[in-house]
Amino acid sequence: MEIRFDELKNMAFPDEWTEKALALPEKLPESKRFRLRPLYLAAGAACLVLAVFIGVSAWLMKPSETPPVMPAVTRAPETSASAVEAKTEANTESAAATEPTEEPKTEITVSEPAEEPVTEPLPEITVQTEPEPVTDPAETSCCATEPQIASDTTAPTFQPAFPDGCTLIAVFSADRLTEGGVYCRMLDENGAQLGEPDLFDAQHSADVIHSGEKVRATYRPIEKGLKLEEGKAYSIVFYTDSGETLVQSVPMPIQNDLVIMLRG
Amino acid sequence: MDGFAGLSYEQVVREYGQTVASVCVMRLRSRADAEDCFQNVFLKLLRKSPNFCDESHLKAWLIRVAINECKNYLRDNRRTVSLDALSREPVVFDEEGSDLSWALMKLPDKYREALYLFYAERYTVAEISAILGKNQNTVKTLLRRGREKLREIYGEE
Q: Fewer beta carbons within 10 angstroms: which end of chain A, N or C?
């Protein structure tokens, strides 16, 4: 059977499309004018309102903040004022002048209690480390790379749908030259294939794999629209363009955020 | 306005409108959606006014922009399905006896695009790989599998 592709070139499309496209240069400046002007006006008005709001709020805040600011300002020249105070005789004033100089020292002592809360959580962390070994036996087959998640969720709960983050990775050394890239398919417990028979590309960058070359192919079932069920075992097959199996996993149950590494 | 590879804007639309329309329709399968993208392609041509070396460069640019426009359109409207797209019949191909177009519409996008560029636009594998941004071997695979699938579809009907 001969397939003639020439007829594709004669594909009809309405003349309106051409007419509209030809009218674009005339509409372009107008559309710019009509769209941009309101945009600029709105942006300008918004900036103006914002500036007024900031100005008013700053003005309202000023009187309330000035009293505490004032002593802070007077504290700064205290070093120079202390020299002046040395000339004056008032003991009470000098005593008052020394007090603020001592204040930072008291602040340093205040910082000591700040260290105490740091020491407080330490026993809590050690408490958290205790339940972790309890959770470890539950995760036997999963080579999870996220210890934080494992420590946070003491009891791992599996989502009914296959998680987005699941990635199947195959790392193997090719024993022969193959062309056409690496493909992947998933089989269920009974060995039946899931999805289309020719799910395309395993996202391997090179299309020609030389003998002895290290291949790292990744596969994300969720992107292929596969619905995998928790607890059920699946096996993954990476194969060549000609259908030769490169590497195949043993059936293994799917778990949340599972990263399966196949090494051939 | 400066020309585009020696052509005026009107000449570009008349000369390459067919190609741009075909790419848009085959990617989107909907007349209304394809028209939007069709207009956007020429709008971009006007706004950006790129410097083209020659007409082949201009044509490749138009096809690339059309494909990108369609991708963006599909991404932005992922959650909505147009009524046109729901119908199984091709929308724009209204030539009598054009069952090839009907069969093409049943192919996945990647095969359809490669087959169209290769057979209808007469691009080489190397040129298609440059336009689609894919490896040449991948393009060959797409063409081979697309042909096989097309044959299967013809066989079914």
A: N
Q: Give per-residue pLDDT as tens, B25-61.
A: 877 777 778 888 999 999 989 888 888 888 888 988 9
Measured distance CA(B87)–CA(B99) in Å, rounded = 15
User: Where does chain B hold its CATH 1.10.10.10 domain(s)?
Assistant: 93-157
When CB atoms are compared, the residue of B104, B137, B150 closest to A207 is B137
Q: In this complex, which of A3, A6, A28 lies closest to B46 when CB atoms are compared?
A: A28
Closest chain A residue to B134, measured at CA: A205
Condensed to tens digits (0 to 9), the pLDDT of residues A72-116 reads 444 444 444 444 444 444 444 444 444 444 444 434 444 444 444
ipTM over 0.95: no
DSSP letter at B116? I
Q: Which residue has the higher pLDDT, A217 or A119?
A: A217
Contact A241 B35 (CB under 8 A): no
pLDDT tens across A22-32, in order? 888 887 765 55
User: Is the CA virtual torsion B106, B108, B114, B117 positive or negative?
Assistant: positive
Give the torsion sign (CA, A217, A223, A224, A225). positive
- The domains of chain A, with CATH numbers, are 158-263 (2.60.40)
CB A207 within 8 A of CB A180: yes
Q: How many CB atoms lie within 10 A of CB A138?
A: 12
